[in-house]
Structures are given as C-alpha cells and as structure tokens.
Specification:
This protein has 275 residues and is α+β, with helices and mostly antiparallel strands. It contains seven helices and 13 strands.
Length: 275
C-alpha cells in the first residue's frame, strides 16, 4: 500500500487533527509523543481522532463513535494530556445539547483509505452550497443545524439533500386520505430556494439568462430574482394559474415532481415545463 506524500491531518489554528488510521504517517518523534501521552489516559479508553498541539507539548484523544457512519459525527469524549506535567483532563460531551461536531473528515485520513474519496465528495458538496464559508458557524451542533436549515438542506447518510417545500402546517393538513393538497407544500421564503441557490453559486443567475419557475408556489424565488434584475417569470397551478408559461434558458422544476402522487402525471411535467 503506497503512502501519501501530502500533509496528513486537518490543520486548525495551532492544532493538527488526524484519524488513528493515519498514525503510521506521522514522523517517529510525533508517534512517540502520541504513545507517551496515550499512557496517561484511562486504560482501555476508546478514541479514534488524535489532536496534536504544535506549539506546546499537548496531545488530545477524541472519541467520535460514529466517525464512519455519520457525515458530521458528534464528539462524545476527550482526553487532553500535557506531556510536560503528565496531567490528563477528561471531558464528556454525550449529555451536552450542543456538542462539537466534525467536518472535512477526509483530511484526517490517508489518501489511500477506502473512505477518503467518499468523504472528499461530501466536503466538495458542502463547499458548493456554501456551508463552509464561515467556519465560525459550523463547529457545534446547534449552529450547524441552524445553518443547514438556513441553506435549505438536510443530511442523508453522506449526502446533502435539498429540503422539500414542506408546509409549516401539520402533515395531517397536507394529506387527506390519498389526496395531496399540493399548494400546502409551498413555503413563504425570505431567501432563494436550494435549487436557485445552487444555480446562483455556479454562476447561472448572472442576468444573461432568462429563468422560468414552473411550480413557483407563492412566488418568492420569482420576486427575489426580479429584485436582482434577472429576467424571470413563474407559473403555479394554485397561486398563479393564469400566468403565462414561457420558454426560458433555465426552467426550475424543483419541489414539483416530488409532490405529484400520480406517476403518469409526473412523467408529463418535464415536457410541460421545458416547452
């Protein structure tokens, strides 16, 4: 197995984080320091991430029990050892309502690790959405969840999935037997929906392209784009049934097909939206 020549670990300020599977990638002196510090923590302690302070003789051992299972795992326990004094400080986060969470997991692994590429793709996806634009907002669970909600995404396994336009009303008000009241899935937005945010991030909403929002709901995306001087129009069977269906450079079908319960009708929608 060929070793990587890249810097192993995630660098944050004065600290370097790496997974235990990357321990062999460290130089002999660093590995020796880790082993010396390990002798000071609880015998049999479970940990899978090592945190090395570069400007001081301090090494921490962190336990993320779901490191491989969860996209952004939660810190459960930590041991911090001062190599000069031999002092060890232990902390438990399992009962905290706002524990630290971990991002960019691929940086903690050697590049030949089987999960390296999977974690890297998740990081690229998060970057494209803008989740890592402000690193001061992502280190703890509550802030992270608020940011996800603000951006209009949720985490599903190791993927970021746009939130559907779920109504704020109880689901019992949306569904009545087998009938779906589709207009109730429309949200009142104060920012662009997740599909529109993606278009903006990749430079498609640059005022050179026209946009048509098929199934525009209450028209929040349409209004926000108009405010940015973008040539945009929209149609919705409930809120804007008399609006003209127009051709456009970009046609948004986001959160339309997923609320149509009849398969045959679902198949017809892309053609209707793209003519």
């Amino acid at each position: 197995m060929e070793k990587s020549n890249r810097f192993i670990g995630k660098k944050i300020a004065d600290y370097r984080y790496l997974h235990t599977s990357a321990l062999s990638e460290l130089d002999d002196e660093s590995r020796s320091a880790v082993r010396k510090a390990e002798a000071r923590i609880t015998p049999g302690a479970k940990y899978n991430v090592i945190k090395i302070r570069e400007s001081a003789p301090e090494i921490s051992f962190l336990n993320y029990p779901t490191f491989f299972e969860e996209a952004f795992p939660i810190l459960e326990q930590s041991w911090k050892v001062n190599l000069d004094t031999g002092q060890c400080r232990y902390r438990v986060y399992s009962e905290s309502n706002n524990p630290p969470i971990l991002h960019r997991k691929e940086l903690l692994l050697p590049s030949y690790h089987l999960d390296y590429q999977r974690f890297l793709e998740l990081t690229k996806e998060a970057e494209s959405i803008g989740l890592f634009d402000d690193t001061t907002r992502i280190g703890f669970l509550q802030d992270w969840n608020r940011l996800l909600e603000l951006k209009g995404y949720e985490v599903s396994e190791h993927a970021l999935v746009p939130l559907a336009n779920e109504a704020t009303e109880n689901l019992s008000a949306i569904e009545s037997g087998s009938e779906i009241h589709r207009h109730l899935t429309a949200l009142t937005r104060t920012q662009l929906s997740a599909p529109m945010q993606s278009l903006a991030r990749y430079g498609y909403l640059d005022q050179t392209r026209s946009v048509f929002d098929y199934g525009c709901g209450k028209g929040n995306d349409v209004q926000l784009l108009k405010d940015s001087n973008i040539n945009v129009a929209g149609w919705d069977p409930y809120y804007s049934p008399s609006a003209e269906k127009k051709t456009a450079d970009i046609v948004n079908l986001g959160f339309v097909i997923n609320v149509i319960e009849v398969p045959e009708e679902r198949l017809r929608i892309p053609d209707q939206g793209c003519h």
